[in-house]
Amino acid sequence: MSTATHDDASVPAEDQELVTTANARFFRALGDPTRIAIIQLLLARPHSVSELVKELDVPQSRVSNHLACLRWCRFVATERKGRQVVYSISDPRIRDLLQLATRMAGANLEHLAASQRTGPDWL
User: Which of 16, 65, 2, 11 has the alpha carbon at shortest distance from 38?
Assistant: First the structure.
């Protein structure tokens, strides 16, 4: 399969399961409030782990685990600056994706945020 982008109609039937699994994991990687918060901070500017810990007020190990997930999924990239590792967004289209999600949720933001059917315990 080439690395070009595809829509569902252009994906060969034998690759559809791969695409479906990849899409589910793509959205699952974005399905955590802490990871979304990290992405939003990184959209503003690159941050070190310690800066993210301070901004989010969560333990360093939790931030590091979320960053590892985001890095594995290629949402974020790293750059070493001396002894410090700085994280940044690797694909600026993530901003458009989050803006689209916010528009789609629209008037249902409170309802979706309170949902017990889509939360981490349900998955």
Answer: 65
85's tokens? 């590792």
Q: Transcribe 20-44 into DSSP letters.
A: HHHHHHHHHHT--HHHHHHHHHHHH
Q: Which residues contact 91 (CB under 8 A, 6 or more apart)?
A: 74, 75
Rounded distance between C-alpha atoms, residue 60 and residue 69, angstroms? 14
Burial 60-77 (b: 16+ CB within 10 A, else e): eeebeebbebbeeeebbe
pLDDT tens figures, 10-31:
777 778 889 999 989 999 999 8
Q: What's the pTM?
A: 0.80
**Cβ pair 29, 70 in contact under 8 A:** yes
